[in-house]
Amino acid sequence: RGREGGGEAVTTAREVAQRIVSGRGLPEETAGRGRAPANIALVKYWGKRDEELNLPVTGSLSISLGPLGSEVEVSPAEGPHDAIWLNSAPQPLTGVFARRASAYLDLFRPAPGYWYEVKARNTVPTAAGFASSASGFAAMARALDDLYGWGLSIRELSVLARLGSGSAARSLQDGFVEWHAGSAPDGMDSYGERLPAEWPELRMGAVVLCAAEKPVGSREGMKRSVETCEFYREWPGRVAADLAALKDAIARKDMAALGTVTEGNALAMHALMAATRPPIVYALPETVAAMRTVWAARQEGLPLWFTMDAGPNVKLLFEAKDEARVRGLFPEVQVVAPFG
Ligand code: 2P0
């Protein structure tokens, strides 16, 4: 897997970005602002067909977390380097956050030696266990669009956000968002699209079991799975079936069907991870205990399901009418109403 070989000219992320914004010159404003929601995948993204452009092997489908996400302000700066702030704190240029932000800004510099100041703020509680890189890059794409006055479509913004982080393609809209895998080598058909569905009673709960840094990042982990997991070939077919079942469940507002697909897809992804070499296991004893609590509660009639990402924390899925019982089981849960 990976990039097409055979002497074909490969498309770089900067080429894609410049094609989208081409001929639309210098900033129109002195500062641009953007905000974007975090998202949690119900059918997961795990594996790329192109690492430069963050093009996925499969589609995925997430739910956005409304007010929880990122806000970014970007403006041209004096230099001689970018100035990057996170939650009001200046970020060291050699740190992971500033390096990733500057690498993304490289896609949008009108000329070498053109610098930016970025002020990023996460509205996700830092320890909530909701990823912020997706909302961060989506908010950054929106802020750049505002700064330059490009007037890009949601679809174009989603492609630009994806160049920063794959899952950011799903953070341009609220509600349920499907990220189409696409098949074009330049990825112009790989973007997030909102499903025409509302589910005001739906709730997502974050249960933080461990806030420590994860042992293997998603980027490295999914690459390793594609290269070494002998079951990876089963994954695209599984995702296709799960996507179809999930969209059907959403259209019918069938909580049991949504929960069953979501929980099963997360467990299948974690099985892929475990069968990767060397193995990747994110679950802690507390993670397994939380899973068992959910299963036992479901046996007793509580409509409650979970999902997990590339870490030990658990996210719960349920409906508003069951919130008190869920809080009884998980007193520390942070509950989000994705549809406000
Ligand atoms: C997801 N994850 O669908 C899956 C589930 C983690 C587990 O998207 O390399 O940070 O920037 O494209 O988007 C996390 O991966 O990776 C992720 P890159 P990203 O939410």
Characterise this structure.
This protein is of the alpha+beta class and 340 residues long. It has nine helices and 13 strands. It has helices at residues 13-21, 96-105, 133-148, 154-164, 218-228, 235-252, 255-274, 285-299, 323-329; strands at 32-43, 48-50, 55-56, 60-77, 83-86, 89-90, 115-122, 176-179, 192-194, 202-207, 305-307, 314-319, 334-336. The strands form three sheets. Strands 1, 4, 5, 6, 7, 8 and 9 form a seven-stranded mixed sheet that branches. A four-stranded antiparallel sheet has the order 11-12-10-13. Strands 2-3 form a two-stranded antiparallel ribbon. A hairpin with a 6-residue loop joins strand 11 and strand 12. Helix 1 packs antiparallel against helix 4 (154-164), helix 3 (133-148) packs across helix 4 and helix 6 (235-252) runs antiparallel to helix 7. The longest helix is centred in the C-terminal third of the chain and has 20 residues, at 255-274. The mean pLDDT is 94. It binds ligand 2P0. Ligand 2P0 binds at residues 41, 44-46, 54, 60, 133, 165-167, 218-219, 309-310.
